[in-house]
Amino acid sequence: MTEEIMSVVNENLFAVWFLIGAALVFWMQAGFAMVEAGFTRAKNTGNIIMKNLMDFCIGTVTFILIGFGLLLGEDMFGFIGKPGFDIFTNYADFDWSGFVFNLVFCATTATIVSGAMAERTKFLSYCVYSAVISAVIYPIEAHWIWGTDGWLVSMGFHDFAGSCAIHMVGGISALIGAKILGPRIGKFKKKKDGTIKVGAFPGHNLTIGALGVFILWLGWYGFNGAAATSVSQLASIFVTTTIAPAIATVVCMVFTWVKYKKPDVSMCLNASLAGLVGITAGCDVMDAAGAIVVGIVSGLLVVFGVWLLDYKLRIDDPVGAVAVHMLNGIWGTLAVGLFATTTAPENSDFVGLFYGGGIDLLVKQCIGVVSVGAWTAILMTIVFFVIKSTFGLRVTEEEEILGLDSTEHGLESAYAGFLTYGDRISSGVEPVINAENAVPMEEAVPVQIKENDNPIASDVKLSKISIICKQNKFEDLKAALNDTGVTGITVTQVLGCGAQKGQTKYYRGVEMEMTLLPKVKVEVIVSKVPVSAVVKAAKKALYTGNIGDGKIFVYDVENVIKVRTGEEGYEALQGEN
Asked: Are 571 and 458 within 8 A, CB to CB?
């Protein structure tokens, strides 16, 4: 009796965990959105967010109508499930948990494509091919792998959580889409000698990108572990799901540190995801040693994949989706045939080559990769070419330059609160103060108005001194200027570099042509204070003897007019400089 009670409790416990896992997988949509937004330029952030939102929403509609039936409906020849509308006609006995769980997985497949085709794809076209992936392409191949009588699962193919069914399929779709779509403007530049220069487009916010990776890593515990049937199996899955990405990230850090002289932040973030993708197929049948090997290969494979697309295939993938999902999806699926072991809890059926199982399982995994890959490649090629010839796949050159936030969604910026005052006025965020509402000059602060018909208001020479310096030297400069008698200054945060074009830096393995460094620009207008005194004080405050100390520019000023009083020339500067 006690065993029966515990069995019921255990069954219900894992039924609840199954749904919690589905919720964690849904939360991964936020992670994908943050990674893609952070790794691309700010002018396309709203477009990225909208795409990731619609992946799930459009996917839900198509999954209700046809996708769920093709995936888990009554088997037809081991190829597809029988479409049906049980969710409407037999709701009382419907598999609610199975529907939600498979829906969130389906949405993940579609969202992978978004990153590789970011910053230049028409939103309408994106919605169309996202719907096709969720309605037909994913459900049918997933039926082969996870359907009760799917031909791959019946053969003995194993993909526990989707290295092949989800990540490889999404990655192949991304590769084909990015190839047909073409690169972003300026990504590949033809030089005078005929060689191709690969351009770097640094992501506008790696903080958001890193947050997205952590969200995805958390969600992956549900992604891999939701279908566990015992506590021991769940715990083992958590172990392998932790080891593989951690090892992959460390390996990537060391490799990029050696190759590019600095550890590459964005590449290491990609490596974490690569390790997660790699372990997904075999997370339930591998031990710690297998997970370590998977992580090592994933950490190197993601760097190789980014290089391969940039320098050999000339395919523009802004976020590394192909390297992360396609290459590591293939690797993770094949790794099952190498490292599956019966020491993993609840596994008595799958044994890999390196654990004495021979090549039988590896051959089955290869068949699965080839068949699912061919299915995806053929259908997605057809889909993309049909869209290209009807709706059009790519935005115009002008729209791409302006940014898809503005041209596709009428959104001035996804960061309205961070715009400059001028940007805020142009976007309607800040109201314009009309001149007719301003206080008349004669009613402002009582002053003596001095009119002067001579455009050169005085014989005293006026000079503008512009100083570019390092940020950490600004306080020293400000104090030095104050000591010379300069009291009015204008300070601007700027980016720039000198003749050395900044330090040689790499972004995702691509050497940046010109590295713009953060600087401070200080401007003063002087008349009474000698220019030589200001220059001498600035040089003394800024000098270190190293490259990048800064530069000082001196200009003649024709006139100065004080708006409040109308004073001009020398008089306009008195009380200030």
From this structure: yes
